[in-house]
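Hi C.,

You asked whether I'd gotten around to modeling the 137-residue construct. I have! Everything is below, sequence then structure, no commentary in between.
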Amino acid sequence: MTSINIVPAGNQLYEVEVSDDTGTSRHEVGIPDRLLAELDLADVAVQDVVRVAVEFLVEREGRDRLAREIDLGSATERYPELVEQLTSGSRVRPSRQTPPPGLHDAEPDEPTGDRRLVAEVEQEQRSGEASRPFPHR
């Protein structure tokens, strides 16, 4: 079984470690902003895009044959079917920057996310019904 560990290393640059039963390899994967825009992936978690792309490349080339430096812009040109994998939507999830389900229904002036939680806790504290500690970051 192949495992992939992804660590951000800079602006759209990721250090990727790929391990399987035969060993481990390390790669530097770059993903150009233009690729995210062209494929309409701006609202997708970039690490998921990197993971899907690396999984695809490992399946095609093998872990031990992957280049040390991988440019996903070039990879999508070399493998047009990689574009289909990335845009299918079934393997990548929306970015954490998008609101979680249920928060889309909030009224325009109503707080959402962390602000909603803070407002709830402050309201509980004012009313003397504080049942949970104030969240710390």
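If it helps when you're writing up: Residues 99-131 form one domain.

Thanks,
B.
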